[in-house]
Design goal:
GO terms for molecular function: large ribosomal subunit rRNA binding; structural constituent of ribosome. Forms part of the ribosomal stalk which helps the ribosome interact with GTP-bound translation factors. It is a single chain. This protein is α+β, with helices and mostly antiparallel strands. It has two domains: 3-66, Ribosomal protein L11, N-terminal domain (2-Layer Sandwich); 71-155, Ribosomal protein L11/L12, C-terminal domain (Arc Repressor Mutant, subunit A, Orthogonal Bundle), CATH 1.10.10. It is built from six helices and five strands. It is elongated, with a radius of gyration of 19 Å.
């Protein structure tokens, strides 16, 4: 097996500059082909940072493994915001609904540790809290507790 290049790229907009170009160049693989393939595969995630692994074989062929964007990136996309609060706990940047948390959980399923959709949505709310977001107009911790107590069951 050749080498593996790990990078985080802008979905749909990877280019031959750092981090990919310099890392792939010495492997002898066609960098332009790799970049085109990454951009084709990640086009639907445009606007997000996406983890990418490029496996370069000894015969100069390559295989891609595209990861899931970070939960915070998915939350920002669903809410249509550019960033969370710089003062989490004092300044609320936006409000996420249970439905939006479920949407993010479904997109991120493989990267979450929760056993079911309810637990995964709760994880998403935890990230939302750290981003300075409210959930259903309340502190995300309160919504997590309500979910655990059986509220919002009709959503799952």
């Amino acid at each position: 097996m050749g080498n593996v290049v790990d990078a985080v790229v802008q979905a749909g907009k990877a280019n031959a500059g750092p981090p990919l170009g310099p890392a792939l160049g010495p492997s002898g693989v066609n960098v332009k082909e790799v970049i085109e393939e990454i951009n084709k595969v990640t086009a639907s995630m445009e606007g997000m940072q996406v983890p990418v692994k490029v496996f370069v074989e000894d015969d100069k062929t390559f295989k891609l493994e595209i990861g899931t964007p970070p939960t915070s990136s998915l939350i920002k996309m669903v809410l249509g915001i550019e960033k969370g609060s710089g003062e989490a706990g004092t300044v609320v940047a936006a409000d996420i609904t249970i439905e939006q948390a479920i949407t993010v959980a479904k997109q991120k399923t493989s990267g979450l540790s929760g056993a079911d959709l309810r637990a995964q949505a709760s994880e998403v709310l935890g990230v939302a809290k750290s981003m300075g977001l409210s959930a259903e107009g309340k502190d995300p911790k309160d919504v997590q507790a309500a979910m655990k107590a059986g509220e919002y069951s009709d959503k799952f």
